[in-house]
């Protein structure tokens, strides 16, 4: 063998640092974009950020505009831990008990359940298991009822014990026959207990009034503000107008005064530094403009395809895929996917995520009608289940047949089951009621 040194030319596609940055900018949400730009201003001494929000006078907005902006802010609710802690002074706990209870409160998850073993808590504070159980009972005596439970069974049982009128039979069912009851093996359970199945239905109706997630009405997070990137409004002439939300996107400014001061220095490295930072500034400004145009172009196609949806709401949503939008704009499907990620649109019916306007198509037997979107099919399924006879609930196959007969939608039983689960609707066996209302 002989070693040789060869030279050849090859064409190779590679992502530059600037192109990677442009792709990242496209998928940033409005809040993430602001954070990124302020980070860039720290790295580039010539780059200044002018916040458009400083120009906006809230008092000059109309009442309708104020409502549209206010509705974007999530409501503030007290945290579960602070609510529980506020109830402790009335219990006159010892310092040691209070320390254990505070620790347990900190261990509760967002649903109000204790996910730490009692044995671990006992070991941590060098106490007996009985003492740890006593501390847990203190938490379980607080409001809301059911808080501090270690599982759903205990949560429901705690709430039953706190009802103004105790139901001993319901407590017995939850405490000793929980598995059979929740799986709706009621015929077996009724036979074991020697009771009428209607009595189990009464307990079921009572259990449905309880809260399986007692901590759900509280939050562990700070309130969020949803910032719409695009605003869609209807003009007096009846056509739809699309605006890029300039109010929440900072403006980039090149500090000419500082540039002239630095450039007065006759150092070549300084001039190279200024030139490099100016090139970065231009590329960043170009990437922001490209992001803006991409979002506007995508939104124009969506509004054109989903006019009825903007007029009447999501019940009229038509099938639309990202590939269709990409083909119409002559861009790649991944570009559309990045552009709509974590973006929001302020529409006449509220502020919604941009992705919600995309929906897959479901075939229809009526060739002269548009194919139904998966969102619309889910609405059909929900309506059919709401109207069903609860003593003889519709099976997934029966739902598929009714969709075909009433709406001309052809989907399989398995697809119906998938959509039903996405709607968080239980199966027909678990929806069945043995006593009519």
From TrEMBL:
Residues 272-433 form the RNA polymerase sigma factor 54 DNA-binding domain. This is RNA polymerase factor sigma-54. GO terms for cellular component: DNA-directed RNA polymerase complex. NCBIfam families: rpoN_sigma. It comes from Parageobacillus galactosidasius. GO terms for molecular function: DNA binding; DNA-binding transcription activator activity; nucleotidyltransferase activity; sigma factor activity. Pfam families: Sigma54_AID (PF00309), Sigma54_CBD (PF04963), Sigma54_DBD (PF04552). The keyword Transcription regulation applies. Residues 70-258 form the RNA polymerase sigma factor 54 core-binding domain. InterPro entries: RNA_pol_sigma_54 (IPR000394), RNA_pol_sigma_54_core-bd (IPR007046), RNA_pol_sigma_54_DNA-bd (IPR007634), RpoN_core-bd_sf (IPR038709). Keywords: DNA-binding, DNA-directed RNA polymerase, Nucleotidyltransferase, Sigma factor, Transcription, Transcription regulation, Transferase. GO terms for biological process: DNA-templated transcription initiation. Belongs to the sigma-54 factor family.
């Amino acid at each position: 063998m002989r070693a040789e040194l060869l030279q050849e030319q090859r064409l190779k596609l590679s992502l530059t640092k600037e192109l990677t940055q442009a792709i990242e900018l496209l998928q940033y949400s409005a809040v993430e974009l602001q954070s990124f730009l302020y980070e860039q201003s720290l790295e580039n001494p010539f780059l200044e950020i002018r916040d458009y929000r400083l120009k906006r006078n809230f008092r000059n907005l109309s009442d309708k505009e104020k409502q549209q902006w206010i509705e974007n802010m999530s409501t503030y609710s007290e945290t579960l831990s602070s609510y529980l802690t506020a109830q402790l002074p009335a219990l006159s706990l010892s310092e040691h008990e209070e320390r254990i209870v505070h620790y347990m409160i900190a261990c509760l998850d967002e649903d109000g359940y204790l996910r730490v073993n009692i044995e671990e808590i006992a070991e941590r504070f060098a106490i007996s298991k009985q003492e740890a159980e006593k501390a847990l009972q203190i938490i379980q005596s607080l409001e809301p009822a059911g808080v501090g439970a270690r599982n759903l069974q205990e949560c429901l049982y705690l709430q039953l014990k706190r009802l103004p009128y105790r139901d001993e039979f319901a407590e017995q069912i939850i405490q000793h026959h929980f598995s059979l009851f929740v799986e709706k093996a009621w015929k077996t359970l009724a036979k074991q207990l020697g009771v009428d199945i209607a009595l189990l239905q009464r307990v079921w109706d009572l259990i449905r009034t309880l809260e399986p997630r007692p901590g759900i009405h509280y939050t562990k997070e700070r309130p969020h503000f949803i910032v719409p990137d695009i605003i869609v409004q209807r003009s007096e002439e009846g056509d739809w107008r699309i605006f890029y939300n300039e109010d929440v996107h900072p403006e980039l400014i090149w500090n000419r005064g500082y540039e002239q001061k630095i450039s007065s220095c006759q150092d070549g490295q300084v001039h190279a530094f200024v030139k490099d930072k100016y090139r970065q500034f231009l590329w960043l400004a170009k990437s922001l403009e490209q992001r803006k145009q991409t979002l506007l172009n995508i939104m124009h196609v969506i509004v054109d395809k989903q006019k009825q949806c903007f007029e009447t709401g999501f019940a009229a949503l038509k099938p639309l895929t990202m590939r269709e939008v990409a083909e119409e704009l002559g861009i790649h499907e991944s570009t559309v996917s990045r552009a709509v990620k974590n973006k929001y649109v302020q529409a006449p019916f509220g502020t919604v995520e941009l992705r919600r306007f995309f929906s897959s198509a479901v075939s229809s037997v009526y060739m002269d009608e548009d194919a139904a979107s998966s969102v619309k099919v889910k609405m059909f399924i929900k309506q059919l289940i709401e109207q069903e006879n609860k003593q003889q609930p519709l099976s997934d196959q029966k739902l598929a047949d009714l969709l075909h007969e009433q709406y001309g939608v052809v989907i399989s039983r398995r697809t119906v089951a998938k959509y039903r689960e996405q709607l968080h609707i239980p199966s027909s066996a678990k929806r069945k009621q043995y006593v009519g209302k």
